[in-house]
Amino acid sequence: MSDGTPPPNDPMQLMRDVYAQGIERWSKAMEEIVGSDDFAAASGQLLVLYAQQQQSIRAASRVAAESIQMPTTEDLAEVALLVINVERKVDEVTDQAADVATRLTAIETRLADATAAAHAIPTRLTAIEERLAEAASASQALSDRLTPIEEAIRELASAAAKETAETTAPAAAKAPAATKAPAAKARATKKPAPAKSAPARRTPPADG
Fold this sequence. Notes:
The chain has 208 residues and is mainly alpha-helical. The protein has a domain at 11-70. Helices cover 83% and strands 0% of the residues. The protein contains three helices and no strands.
């Protein structure tokens, strides 16, 4: 018993041996039966009879279900197909709704940006108006500063004109006297032309 072998005259071992031999003989017999042509023909006929029986049972159950207004498997299959189509349409509509929601969100974002920009326009216009007012005041201040300069320029121009007139008047007064003296000298130095003799007057003859 130390090597693990069962004891002699073990009834359980005898039963196991008999069971194994019976299973082996039974499996060989079944293989021979199943592998025969007669079994294949009988199995075919049995399957044909089973199919005909199932078809007749289905037809009878359909007629019975229609008579008591109960849905058949075909009706359930059609309803399932319709439900599948409806679910597909619902999925498509859901996807389209998600796309529309995304586009609406983008439109809302753009409208919010446009609204913010529109709110910023008055502020920018106010800043522009302030700058224009500052530019106008600066232009007015520049004009005010240029006015005294223009007046000073006019005064300088009038003073220069007066000075020019005063300086040119004595020169003009002296110029004729200077020019008359040479003319007198020219007359003094000019020789008198010889006097022409007057032609002799002819006396008419006296009447005799």
